[in-house]
């Protein structure tokens, strides 16, 4: 995983070679600059996969095709990642609880997102608002399906904390200070909105084990053998190795 600088957004990482990653993840591209769009063009991004609902999206400021695939619909109760205005999420009080609920309740949407990456012949950039939670789950599932080591997937997820805290701390702080929270509740809510602790993603791996692993989870959601192979070939090519196409 390579940390990248793209003017107008943040929390950008590439999977694959630094010059030509096969998968990118980032925060929103709503404020991307011409210089930032040029970076994406240089990286040969073929598709942007936007996981936000219609109420969150701003004006598209780049020429790359966008596939909108909201993990949550506008009619759903908003997950905590969409807006830092609630001390807790309606999906749970900890990231572990939130992610577990999402894995059970939004398996079809998560699988569809992985399928989009598998079906796109070029580089895909996945983003939501901060690139932390919805993006974190989709990228984790994609990498696991592609054959990445779980420890590497956890490490990539955990890297979001530094940049999200840098770019969203003031926004979250201003919203949460308006609420009648104790200092302990404030700190817990702030962490919920800004942090990506490794243990939260490790819990995701534990939940996936209940389904028989990531392959069984995604097959149940509709991912095909050909799509698994496409992801594994792309990931193996980025490592310069032969893909292991055997599925359990």
UniProtKB/TrEMBL annotation:
Entry GO MF terms: phosphoprotein phosphatase activity
Alphabetical list of PROSITE patterns matching this protein: TYR_PHOSPHATASE_1 (PS00383), TYR_PHOSPHATASE_2 (PS50056)
Record domain Tyrosine specific protein phosphatases: where: 108-179
Pfam families per record: Y_phosphatase3 (PF13350)
Name of the protein in its database record: Tyrosine-protein phosphatase
Organism of provenance: Cryobacterium melibiosiphilum
């Amino acid at each position: 995983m390579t940390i990248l600088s793209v003017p107008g957004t943040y929390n950008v990482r590439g999977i694959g070679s630094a010059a030509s990653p096969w998968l990118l993840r980032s925060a929103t591209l709503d404020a991307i600059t011409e210089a930032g769009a040029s970076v994406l063009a240089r990286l040969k991004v073929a598709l942007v996969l936007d996981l936000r609902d219609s109420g969150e999206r701003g004006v598209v400021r780049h020429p790359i095709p966008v596939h909108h695939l909201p993990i949550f619909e506008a009619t759903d109760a908003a997950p905590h990642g969409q807006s830092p205005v609630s001390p807790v999420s309606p999906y749970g009080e900890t990231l572990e609880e939130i992610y577990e609920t999402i894995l059970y309740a939004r398996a079809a949407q998560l699988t569809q997102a992985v399928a989009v990456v598998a079906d796109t012949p070029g580089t895909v950039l996945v983003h939501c608002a901060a690139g932390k939670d919805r993006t974190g789950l989709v990228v984790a599932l994609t990498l696991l399906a592609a054959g990445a080591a779980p420890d590497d997937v956890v490490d990539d997820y955990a890297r979001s904390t530094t940049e999200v805290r840098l770019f969203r701390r003031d926004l979250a702080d201003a919203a949460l200070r308006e609420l009648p929270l104790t200092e302990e509740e404030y700190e817990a809510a702030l962490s919920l909105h800004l942090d990506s602790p490794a243990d939260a993603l490790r819990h995701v791996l534990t939940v996936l084990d209940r389904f028989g692993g990531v392959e069984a989870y995604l097959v149940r959601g509709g991912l095909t053998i050909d799509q698994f192979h496409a992801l594994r070939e792309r990931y193996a090519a980025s490592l310069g190795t032969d893909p292991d196409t055997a599925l359990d």
